[in-house]
Amino acid sequence: MVADRTTDFSPAYTAWLRKPVVLLVVIRQCHVPIPCSILGESAGALRVRFKPGWEMDLRKELILAVEEDAAAPDSCVN
What we know:
By secondary structure, this protein is mainly β. It has one domain (about 10-70): SH3 type barrels (Roll). It is about 0% helix and about 50% strand. The protein has strands at about 20-25, 30-40, 45-50, 55-60, 65-70. A hairpin with a 3-residue loop joins strand 2 (about 30-40) and strand 3 (about 45-50).
């Protein structure tokens, strides 16, 4: 059986894959900025990496905003 919504999946976060970003997440009515890197996307969650070895799936319904992490070491110019 195929659910109706699975055929309508459109990746919204593909432009941010493997780039340092800051996700604004709501946790218990608090807005928390989380610096991370987006590794993958499913219909209901994002796979994010906080630092090497620290990854988790984050439900999309908790994400309020995403923006480029200007303070990330990868984006600094020597």
